[in-house]
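Late entry, evening session. Most of the bench is empty. Finally got around to the prediction I had been postponing all week. Sequence below, unchanged from the version circulated by S.P.
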Amino acid sequence: MSRTSIKLALLASSFALALTAALSAGAQPVAQATTSALPDANLYTSYFFSSGYQGVTWIVCGSTTESEGCFDSGQLGPFGQAGALLQSDPVEYKGAVIRYIYVVDDAAGSGKGVKLYVYKKSDVITSTFDTSTVTLVKAVPLPQLVGGASATAYLAANNGYLFVGTNLTPNAVEIQKTNLTQISTIEGFSPPVNVSGISTDSYGNVTVTFGSPLSGESGNVQIGPDGSGLGDGGGAWVMLSPTLGLSTSSLPTTDIFPVNKMHVRLKKNVATQGAPAQ
């Protein structure tokens, strides 16, 4: 198998710029390093789905300093089929705790479209209550992807980017969080094999995996925290998260170890110590 091309964004914003732009545009700001000190540290949000995954209900429960129970609830949608969801880490802003909820509708429009819905969840906590407000920020069509009733959607994120794919499409997309308009195609392989997973590690590295248990072909594209490409090649490579187990049900197996990947070289910008004078 050979890669055709990767079209990846190389833009990496500074922390301050990303935070300012994200809050003004309604996209996800960079999360705080710790969440234990946030006002909603003892609260949690659960989700459940209506028939056909066409609606999503959220409910906030837990405790404040003076009360406990379930405080607020609401609905997201309607969708053709809510195929994948992701909730961002929180950040405290102007007296509220802000999170973003991302929903991939993998049966949008005529039933075969894919659309990303971005919601802003704001929690204002007092000693006795949590008032939660969820508003739609933007619906982002993804015509680069194919959906349908039988589609399986894949969704992952790091601090700067979202990554979306389906098992009916031989490529994935990368979306910059700060503006939700910079969308790059992560192209796959020739001959084409469809996406079978998107995984991340704790540093924000991402792997898009291609192939299926029945295809006989597999590959991977790896992307760094800044959205730039790290590498690609054959084999159903994945990354592991510290908080969510990886399901292998749709992943192909890889029996051949790529020996050619095992080599170390000096970086181009590092001077070789002890080299003879020229």
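Two things to note before I forget:
Residues 2-261 form one domain.
The radius of gyration is 21 Å.
Will write this up properly tomorrow.
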